[in-house]
Design brief:
Elements: H1 2-22, E1 38-41, E2 47-49, E3 51-54, E4 56-61, H2 63-68, E5 72-80, E6 87-88, E7 94-99, E8 111-115, E9 117-118, E10 122-131, E11 135-138, E12 147-151, E13 155-160, E14 166-172, E15 184-190
Parallel strand pairs: 6-15
Antiparallel strand pairs: 1-2, 1-7, 3-15, 4-5, 5-10, 7-13, 8-14, 9-10, 10-11, 12-13, 14-15
């Protein structure tokens, strides 16, 4: 009877200890200071600020649009530099803390995680395409799916599973802004 109680106590303590190790505690992590900033939370619980870049919007029409007025115009978000200095390991769940205006809105409506196309000098993401006969579309095929939870006063904790190698950015839209001329994006590289 005594031996059975002892075994049950040891199993209970081991189970409790393993649950504690498997669930990362985020209480010690502060919210980023400014809206639109994001930090990567490493497996050891240390937070690493993501690279902040100004977004430039470029639009380009195909040749037929100039010659006969029929064709397509593409708008892209462009960031200088081919790669981010912030590197995150691939093929493991990734956690970010993203500062927003508040955390009362559905994060899917204001926080976007995008995968960039890269060139030797810049990173790009197509935000829209408008054709004479095909109408308009957004470039949402390169948005990355995530799970989100409220974090502290005005941030979200984003969890992304199985990120492929590449260049990424986290963009927080301002529902109160009249334009996005000074848009800042938090960038990182998965390698």
């Amino acid at each position: 009877n005594y031996e059975m109680k002892r075994i049950i106590l040891i199993i209970s303590l081991l189970t409790f200890a393993l649950q504690g190790f498997s669930q990362q505690n985020f209480d010690h992590i502060d919210e980023p200071e400014y809206i639109g900033e994001a930090v990567y939370v490493k497996n050891d619980g240390i937070s690493l600020p993501l690279e902040k870049q100004s977004v430039q919007i470029k639009s380009k029409a195909n040749t037929s649009m100039y010659i006969i007025g029929i064709g397509k115009v593409k708008s892209k978000m462009v960031i200088k530099g081919a790669t981010s200095p912030v590197v995150i390991p691939s093929n493991e769940p990734v956690t970010f803390i993203v500062k927003s205006f508040d955390n009362k809105s559905d994060p899917l409506s204001i926080v976007s995680v995008v995968k960039f196309e890269t060139t030797k000098k810049e990173r790009k993401f197509q935000i829209a395409e408008v054709g004479t006969f095909s109408g308009g579309s957004t470039g949402n095929e390169d948005f990355v799916a995530y799970q989100a939870k409220k974090f502290k006063e005005s941030s979200y904790k984003l969890i992304i599973n199985n990120m492929a190698q590449g260049e990424y950015g986290i963009l927080v839209s301002n529902p109160n802004a009249l334009n996005n001329s000074n848009t800042i994006i938090a960038c990182f590289s998965v390698q």
